[in-house]
Design a protein that fits this description.
The chain is an alpha+beta fold. It is about 30% helix and about 10% strand. The protein has eight helices and seven strands. The protein has a five-stranded mixed β-sheet. A two-stranded antiparallel sheet has the order 6-7. The structure holds iron/sulfur cluster and FE2/S2 (inorganic) cluster. The site of iron/sulfur cluster has 15 residues, from helix 4 and helix 5.
Length: about 260
């Protein structure tokens, strides 16, 4: 099929960018979206032009590196699909496709479609981890965990840190990403000791990085390729308020529920 691409080209963070038009005459429906861009870039390199910069790594939907706005939608707007998992069979001959980088103050453009998501790394570095030595993987039944908690922690752990939630949000809020990290660790006994500190640190770093606040619009959930639910934002708010303003009891563990503030 023949496609017309309109791609945001920007030499570096400070340079002014612009949309540039490209014709691509022989695109197979079997190609992935990134393979289609590879073909475009091979042609540009052969002509001595600068290839289009875009992020990618695993190309299997698990690393979170890829991401761009396709026709105004984060990752293209196909449910549960990262750009690398998007295939050209979803497009048809003669289509015009508009490609832009994530738009958010906290994700400055590095070049073309590649943005700097170091702000996410700094949020995780502020406390999105468990700082006790965990050793090798324990037996599955060594620490009893409610099935409900294990399932919800696993759902939240599916976040790949792609940033689509920020790009889709009219406020450029990172609430879904932060909520996923807090819900993942806050549901498990290993995450209890640092739960208060983690909630305070991640929210504080999110504000420092320039992400705006959540106003419950829900675009983030709709754009998330990993199905992270808005409920994680409610958990963030609850953990943050408890940690910042209320005295908390000692954590419990073992066979009891680890959720000290049940839903
Ligand atoms: S919450 Fe979803 S959209 Fe946001 S970074 Fe994680 S996987 Fe990407
Ligand atoms: S390249 Fe890894 S998720 Fe797309």
């Amino acid at each position: 099929m023949k496609l017309t691409l309109h791609i945001w080209r920007q030499k570096n963070t400070r340079a002014a960018g612009q949309m540039v038009r490209y014709e691509l005459p022989n695109v197979s429906g079997h190609m992935s979206f990134l393979e289609m861009l590879d073909v475009l870039n091979e042609g540009l390199i052969q002509k001595g032009d600068d290839p289009v910069a875009f992020d990618h790594d695993c190309r299997e939907g698990i690393c979170g590196m890829c991401g761009m706005m396709i026709n105004g939608k984060a990752h293209g707007g196909f449910k549960g699909t990262t750009v690398c998992q998007l295939h050209m069979r979803h497009f048809k001959n003669g289509d015009e496709i508009y490609l832009e980088p994530w738009r958010a103050k906290a994700f400055p453009v590095i070049k073309d479609l590649a943005v700097d998501r170091g702000s996410f790394d700094r949020i995780i570095a502020a406390g999105g981890f468990i700082s006790v030595p965990t050793g090798s993987a324990p037996d599955g039944n060594a620490i009893p965990i409610r099935k409900q908690d294990a399932d919800l922690a696993m759902d939240a752990a599916a976040c790949i840190g792609c940033g689509a939630c920020v790009a889709a949000c009219p406020n450029a809020a990172a609430a879904l990403f932060v909520g996923a990290k807090l819900s993942h660790l806050g549901r498990l006994p290993q995450g209890q000791v640092e739960r208060d500190r983690r909630a305070l640190a991640l929210v504080q770093q999110m504000n420092i990085e320039g992400f705006a606040n959540c106003t419950n619009i829900g675009e983030c959930e709709a754009a998330c390729p990993k199905g992270i639910k808005l409920e994680v934002i409610a958990r963030t708010n609850r953990d943050y308020i408890k940690a910042a303003f209320l005295e908390r009891p000692e954590p419990t563990s073992g066979g009891e529920s680890v959720d000290r503030w049940p839903d």
